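With this grant's support, we have settled on a layout for protein records. One resulting record is reproduced below.
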Amino acid sequence: MTSCTKQMSWTKRATTLGTIGTIGIIGLLTTFSGTALAANSEPGSSITEVSPHASPSSIWDAAIAGDSATLNTLLTPSNWERNALNADLIESIELLQTNIAQREVTRQEQIEDANTRLLEQLESYNETNSGLHLSKALAAAVELQMLFNNDDKFFADASVSKAINVSVNAAKLAENTGDWMIASELYYRLNAIHDPSGIYKPDLKRLTRRLAMIRLYAPQRLWEIRNQRRIDEEMEPLPPYNAYGDDFHEKLKGINSITVRTAIQRSADQHVGRKTRRHPQGINMNDLILSGINAIETMATTTDLAVAFDGLEKESNRNKFLDVIHAQQAKIQAKEHTASGYDLRRALDSILIAGQQFVGIQENALLHEFGNGAMSALDDYTAIIWPDELARFRRSTQGEFIGIGVQIQLDEFQNIKIVTPLEGTPAQRAGVQSDDIIKKIDGITAVGLGLNQAVDIITGPANTKVVITVEREADAGEIIEKEFTIIRQKIDLPSVKGWSKTGAGDQDWNYFIDQDAGIGYLRLTGFTQDSTKEFDQAIKAMKQEGLNALILDLRYNPGGLLDQAVNLASRFIPSGMIVKTVDGSGITNSIDDARRVSPRKSVADIPVVVLVNEGSASASEILSGAIQASAHQGKTQALVLGHRSFGKGSVQNVYLLPGGSAAMKVTTNYYKIDAPRMIHKVPGATQWGIDPDLVVDMLPSQQADALLLRRSADVLPLDENGDIIVDAERPDPNTLITDGTDLQVQTALVLLQSQTTVNNTKTTMMD
C-alpha cells in the first residue's frame, strides 16, 4: 500500500474527463487520509507480518483497520499456503492485482503522452501565440497533475511552471480583448490546478458570468463563438443556430425589483456566513450590494451583449453607465456602517435608471444580473431561482416531472438523439424508439437546438400535447420520417438501480454482483421522495434470494432530500446520531438520530462497502459519513471506499418570493456528522468531505470509460410495444470488473468476497 499525496478535486477530474456525451431526460436534464490501494509496496517499505492463523476475513479486517501493509500482503495470493483460500477468492484477488498493475502501466503511458502533448502545445503557442494551443497545454498539465498525484513533483516540472505563468498573462489579455471563450478556458484550468487555494476562482466566476450573459441575451453570438472554436480545432462546424425557445424576453417575465430586493435582504439576514458579533469577519449587506454592482459592471463591459442592447455599442454611452456604476461602488465601499435595505434600494434604483437611460438595458435584465451578482457574494448554493428555472428546480427535488418520457443526447453530428424511451411512458406507448433522431418539435425544426432548449420546449403542463417528428432508419437502411402526437404526463424517475438490467420496468434489475456469494449492488443516483421506498423494495428482493453483503454506490450522486438520507442511514445504523445542523458559530440547531426500522428493512447486520468519489455530495455525504462513523464506533461492519467526496454539507432553506413566480434558496446552517470536522468545504479549507477508509485510485480515462459503459448498459432498447430488442448491442457491466475499468467496484467486491467466503478450513499464511 502507498499513501496518495493529494486528493484531487471534482473540478480537476471534470476538467480532465471533459464532456461525456451529455444525456438529458425530457423534463429533467443532466453536477485525504486512510489506506491507499497500490500495485506494489513502495521501495523500502516493510511487509507487516500476519498472524499464522489468518483467515480470508482477515482481508476485510485489515481494510477496516486501515492497515495498508497487512492488506497488501493479504491481497497477494502467493503469500498464502496452498488451499488456504478457495479457488474463487484466489481468482478474484489475482484479477484485482492484474488490473491494478495494468493501471500503473497505463498511468506511465498516459504521463508520457500528456507530457508530450504539453511540450508540443507550448511549442505551437510560441510559434502562433494562439490561446487555443495554450488552453490545450494547460489541459495536458491538469491531466499530469492527476496522474502524478504529487503536487511537489508536479509544480517542480519546468514545462508545467512555464505553462502556468504564460497562461496567467494570456488569460488577462484574452479578457481585455474580448476573447471570452479562451479567457474562460484558461482561468478554468488555472483554477483546477490551484484548487483548493481558489486564487483564480474570482476570475473564473467573472468569465463564467460573461458567457452566461451572452448565452441568455445573445445566444446566437455564443453559437458563433463556439462554432468558430470548432473550426479553429478543425472539427465539424455546428448545425445552424436555432432560436426556437431561446428568447430572453420570455425567460425574464415576472422579474421585478421587489422580488430581487426581498431575496437579497433575506440572505443578508439569514445566511450562515453573515456578519455577527461572534463572526465579525462575516458578510453583510455592503458586500451583497457591491457584488451586485460588480456584476452589472461585468455586464456593461461584455461588448458582445450589444446585439441585444445596442446602447452598449457606443463607447461614450458605456462610459456614462460605467461612471454611475463606479460612483455607486465607491459609495458602498466608503460606508463605515452596515448598509440597510434603503441603501440597497437607492443603489439598485440608480443602476436601473442609468442602465436604461444610457445603454438601453431593460429593467428586468439589470435586476436579473444584479440579483445573481449579489447572491454570488455568499456561497455557491445561495441563489435566486428565476421564473424560468423554478419548474426545473422542483423536478430535481421531487424526482418526477411532466414530459413524454425519453432520454436524449446530442450525437456526434449535434443531432438530438433518443437514447431510449422509458418503459410505460407516453413516448414509448406512442411508438418512439431508441436511436430516433428528433427533427421537428411542433412542426418547427429541431436542428441546432441544445439539450436545454429541447427539454424546455418538449416539456409543459400535464395533459397537453406535443408533436415530435423523428427520422428513423428502416430495416433496409432507408431513412423514414415519422410523426408522433404525444400527451405530456407525470413521469416518475427511479433513483435506485441495480447491477444489470433484466427488463424494461423500473424494478427489473439483477441486484447481485456475485449471486453465489450473495453480494448485492445498489446504485443510488439521487435522494428523491421515493428513494427509501425503492431501496426497501430492492433489499426485500435480495433478501429473498440470500443477501449476505452489499455494495452501496454513491458515486456521482449530487444529493437531494435530507429526510431520505436520514431514513436510508437508519437502514444501516442501529442507533446513534446520523446528522446535526450547526450555525456559523458552531451552535447546534437540530439533531437527527437513527430511527428504528424492522429487521426486514435493515442491513446493519451484514458487511457493507460504500463507494464515494468527488461527485458524491450533500445527502450522499451525510449517508456515507453516518455509516462510516457508526462503523468506526464498532456498531456496524462497513467501510467507505473510493475518493474523498465533494464537500457540500450546508443547509438551504427555500422560499417563494413575492408574486410567486420566483423563489430563492439561502444557506442557513452546516451539516455535521458524528466526526471531528464538518463536511462542508468552507473557503480556505484544506480538509472537507468524507475521507474514504480505503483510497482506490482510478485514472481519468478509467472514470470516463466506466461512466460511458454504465450509461449504455443501463439502457434496454425497446420497440414500439415496449418489448426489449433482444439483438440490440449493449455492453456487459461485468466487463467493468474483468477488464479492470472500475477498480473501486472490483476492490469492494473482493473485500466482501473475503467476508462471505464459505471456508471452514483453518488457514495460515506462509512465512
Q: What stands out?
A: Residues 1-7, 14-34, 39-48, 758-767 have pLDDT under 50 and may be disordered. The chain is about 45% helix and 15% strand. Residues 14 and 35 are 24 Å apart (CA to CA).
